[in-house]
Specification:
There is one protein chain. The chain is an alpha+beta fold and 689 residues long. The protein has a five-stranded mixed β-sheet, sandwiched between helices. A hairpin with a 2-residue loop joins strand 21 and strand 22 (650-657). The radius of gyration is 42 Å and the shape is elongated.
Length: 689
């Protein structure tokens, strides 16, 4: 694929708005338009399961047979398989070998329930994987341990199944296959992340997808985290594919106890789960206890011990409503007792050594290692919780040294002396994942315990007026910085035991204001106060000029003014009075052309005058005479004229008699509609009740 197409695909992937299924749809449409997808009929024998399917768990053989039975029971529906997608097997031999080997490992752990790998398969399923592998198993005559299928025949056979389920659609699927959307291998070659992303989206909405276990979800979170470096983003992406309500707990396990940014412990547990063909859930209560229980050490987080406890429940033969019940919350809480600390630390130290040894040899995830080390994990967990003999094997060891000795014996090449276990009876901020070394570092452990302390953020302390900036943690202390108002900083060390006195705060340390800022904010330089003063001057001028001899006027409850006696031309001036407000330039232009009353200040600013409020019934307020002068339709009817007079720095509108007014004559004015400069008043209606 060319760089432009890859960038476009990555932009869709990283779109913060689109839901995961919409992203997948846009990607597939783009690939189709570029010619990377073709639709063709594939037989089950042509298909492997993609190694990235279900976050690396691929498929669970028991689920394959269970889903097959369910499909036969309700009737085979080819329509439900219309959205089947597969990636072409790589043309690069080394990559192809890894793809074939992943399937071979799955088949070997399936106890004969999955069809052998022929090596001629051409495609790897990203959806419809359970159905395609069931059809392939039927065609290959595989064994079954599903009680419903086994009641018909313990060996899968199309002829036998057709006698019970005479379904032509199923027969055609087994013998002829069905239509698949086949994606060219160059897509995955150009975008290694694509298969993992697409399978998650497809399996999220696929009607036949099995419910993802906690470890599969942990692997999905780990994969997204590795790409985005954001645990929150990884959890949200996974949430769009799963409605597990305690997904945040699974995310915390990935962050704090996965063993580092390659997530070796999560990968190991997924492979162990697959080795047990287990689809049991661990449950919210157990997972919360695994992640949240503090075992009282300042030297280790017990990341390996927590994985041991999970491993034991993955092997559980006890379950209730699909949730493993070999170990429960109370078993973990008992490990908090001081008498258990020595055993826990010894298990952690030995387990960490064995995991790191396997990682150095690069064989931690190999089938035989998963079986042998998995049994060691399970035995340690049952030893710690005093439940030896209650799991899949009845043997008890009684000590950690005996468990280790058995591990060394089973780990000897060519030695098959193993007890019942995996494979014998029955897979928008940068955050950091703790490595195994960090999980045993006192400073990292303190950081996990006091994770509410964030570097650079401020905290207050009980009985102190200082504001503390958190700098970091050491094995013994937390370091804060206190700064005085002169900018001098001093480091303060606080023991971990005293951190309960600190609380996050929005306060900032005291500091001297910048001289330039102080100069700018002096009262005499403050424009706002200059405007307030100017506004007060306008208000005072209006009040001063609003003094009128009311004895010459007759006022009515209809807000009208009449002459109470003969009034000579120009002998009375009526100015507006009321609250004033500064107008913006644009508002000033609009109001000059409208009915608003505007006072102009010589410096260019304009103030709108709003009629003063009054209540006749309560005899309160002030009558706004200016706003009671009534507009008329013709100049001949007008008894008053609108003028503008200057008072110091102000230009104020006012009304004057055009001519001598007779007693009883109404005060009216003609508002020139076409005159954009006129600013006539709008009558203020009297409030009479």
């Amino acid at each position: 694929m060319d760089a432009k197409s890859i960038s476009a695909m990555e932009a869709i992937r990283d779109d913060p708005v689109l839901a995961v299924n919409l992203k997948a749809g846009k990607m597939l449409n783009m690939l189709d338009s570029l010619g990377y997808i073709r639709i063709q009929n594939l037989k089950p024998s042509q298909l492997l399961v993609h190694p990235e399917n279900r976050s690396g768990a691929m498929v669970n053989p028991f689920n394959v047979h269970q889903k097959g039975w369910q499909a036969l029971k309700v009737g085979w529906s080819a329509k439900k398989l219309e959205e089947s997608y597969a990636l072409e097997v790589s043309h690069n031999w080394s990559v192809k070998h890894k793809q074939l080997q992943a399937m071979q490992t799955l088949v070997e752990a399936s106890q004969g329930m999955l069809a052998p790998v022929a090596g001629t398969e051409q495609y790897m399923s990203l959806s419809a994987s359970h159905m395609s592998q069931f059809c392939k198993a039927v065609g290959a005559g595989c064994l079954t341990q599903d009680e419903n299928l086994a009641s018909i025949n313990k060996v899968l056979s199309l002829d036998t199944l057709q006698q019970t389920f005479p379904d032509a659609g199923f027969k055609e699927a087994v013998t002829q296959g069905w239509r698949w959307h086949c994606i060219a291998f160059t897509v995955e070659e150009s975008m290694p992340w694509f298969a993992s992303f697409l399978q998650g989206a497809l399996n999220a909405s696929n009607h036949i997808a099995a419910k993802a276990t906690e470890m599969e979800l942990a692997m999905s979170i780990a994969g997204t985290y590795k790409r985005t470096k954001s645990l929150e983003t990884a959890i949200q992406t996974c949430r769009s594919m799963s409605n597990l309500k305690y997904l945040k707990v699974v995310g915390d396990f990935v962050k704090n106890y996965a063993g580092g940014e390659d997530f070796p412990l999560v990968q190991f547990l997924v492979h162990l789960e697959r080795a047990f063909n287990s689809s049991l859930m661990l449950g919210e209560e157990f997972m919360t206890a695994v992640v949240g229980t503090h075992f009282g050490s300042t030297h280790t987080t017990f990341a390996v011990c927590r994985s041991m406890l999970i491993a034991a429940n993955l092997s559980s033969s006890k379950q209730q409503d699909g949730v493993a019940r070999l170990l429960v919350k109370t078993d973990l809480l008992k490990l908090q007792q001081s008498s258990q600390k020595g055993n826990l630390e010894a298990c952690e130290k030995l387990g960490k050594m064995l995991v790191e040894e396997r990682m150095k040899k690069n064989d931690l995830l190999k089938s035989e290692t998963v079986k042998v080390l998995g049994r060691f994990f399970i035995r340690c967990a049952l030893y710690l919780t005093q439940k030896e003999g209650k799991g899949r094997e009845s043997r008890t060891f009684g000590s950690l040294s005996s468990i280790h000795a058995q591990y060394m014996l089973e780990n000897t090449p060519g030695d098959s002396n193993s007890s019942n276990g995996a494979g014998t009876t029955g897979k928008q901020t940068v955050e950091k994942v703790l490595s195994l070394q960090e999980a045993n570092d006192a400073a990292c452990i303190a950081g996990l315990k006091y994770n509410w302390l964030k570097p650079g953020q401020y905290y207050s302390k009980r009985d102190s007026k200082d504001v503390f900036r958190f700098a970091g943690l050491t094995a013994e202390n937390a370091e804060f910085i206190v700064r005085d108002m002169y900018g001098k900083e001093q480091a303060v060390l606080v023991q971990h035991a005293d951190l309960f006195r600190f609380r996050a705060t929005d306060k900032k340390p005291a500091s001297m204001l910048d001289e330039e800022l102080v100069s700018k904010l002096q009262p005499e330089k403050c424009l706002q106060w200059q405007l307030e003063l100017e506004k007060a001057q306008v208000q005072a001028c209006l009040l001063e000029n609003s003094m009128v001899d009311f004895s010459k006027l007759v006022l009515t409850n209809e807000c009208k003014i009449f002459a109470g006696a003969k009034i000579l031309k120009g002998s009375i001036q009526i100015y507006p009075f009321g609250m004033v407000s500064l107008l913006k330039d644009d508002d000033g232009k609009k109001n000059l052309a409208g009915s608003k009353v505007v006072v102009t200040y010589k410096k260019g600013r304009k103030y709108q005058v709003q009629a003063s409020k009054f209540e006749l019934a309560k005899a309160s307020g002030a009558i706004p005479l200016f706003f009671w002068v009534t507009p008329v339709e013709t100049p001949e009817e007008a008894s008053m004229e609108l003028c503008h007079t200057n008072h110091n720095m102000l230009e104020i509108p006012c009304f004057k008699p055009k001519k001598q007014l007779a007693s009883g004559q109404q005060f009216t004015y003609f508002k020139v509609q076409a005159d954009k400069g006129s600013a006539g008043p709008k009558a203020k209606k009297a409030k009479t009740s």
